[in-house]
What does this fold into?
Amino acid sequence: MTETAPRPTLEAVAARAGVSRATASRVVNGGDGVREPLVERVRQAVEELGYVPNQAARSLVTRRHDAVAVVIAEPETRVFADPFFALQLRGISKELTAHDNQLVLLLTEGRDDHARVARYLAGGHVDGALVFSLHLDDPLPGLIRGAGIPTVFGGRPDWHGGPEAAVYVDSDNRGGAREAVRHLAGLGRTRIAHITGPLDQTSAADRLQGFRDVRGDADPHLVAESDFTPGGGERAMRELLARRPDLDAVFAANDLAASGALRVLREQGRRVPEDVAVVGFDDMLPVAEGTDPPLTTVRQDIEEMGRIMARLLLRRLDPNATDEPPTGLVLPTTLVRRASA
It folds into this structure.
């Protein structure tokens, strides 16, 4: 057996630096009022001794936990199967790590989880929250407001109180959808169908509206509701082909639904893009480049959206910040052309 060396204490740091324990505590915990030469001596002692501050004690001084909750209003089976969430979490994690903050992931499997999440947020465990993938009837926004912690939302909010009541980051879903449909129309396609996402989410509703901006006179049978999954895309594609076997193009509200649509088209002997052109939304490279044929899609910078969400929250948490963060940021989208359209 090996003996573990005792952890260096704050008293040891103070003794090494030749200062009082109170002075060492102020420096270690980010307090003010210590002359710069003493600050340098304490920092040098911390480095030499390998001292790690006690987070609980530090929180008592700073009133900060250096931890942020990321709340995803989806079950874990969806979160870990959809690369969208991995990309957004990667962007959030990079930004929080760069500012020495911890990420606490909270998922909502069902309605019973909402109260649990609200209790955790109100319990003083984290400094703020990043929340995304909300549905229109979701009680989480109200519960989070009740918890009284700074929050940034991913996606345009559309609940009571409206966007002006929340700080959020979103992509130009409506404009990106318009660009996708105009591209298909520019290829000479006249019977363009749309596979939507879940219409209780603003991203899907905005993409449907973008489709209608360009194809306002489209046959209602050319629109089928889906759920942002490959299986949903397959079901919607079969529904569309049964209703309108003469369709010659499909705009799917995300890449996963588009991948499902491509499988059904191939099963039914439809050539892509010769018979049916297909465009998706997201440009998640493992999906878009892995379909057969590779998918033309609308790119939104999902990882950057996560980074900006975290950046806005950290700015709200910074006691020295003098400017107010914007209440809403909408990031641009671009069409990425590949072989499917």
User: Anything to note?
Assistant: Residues 280 and 297 are 4 Å apart (CA to CA). The chain is about 45% helix and 15% strand.
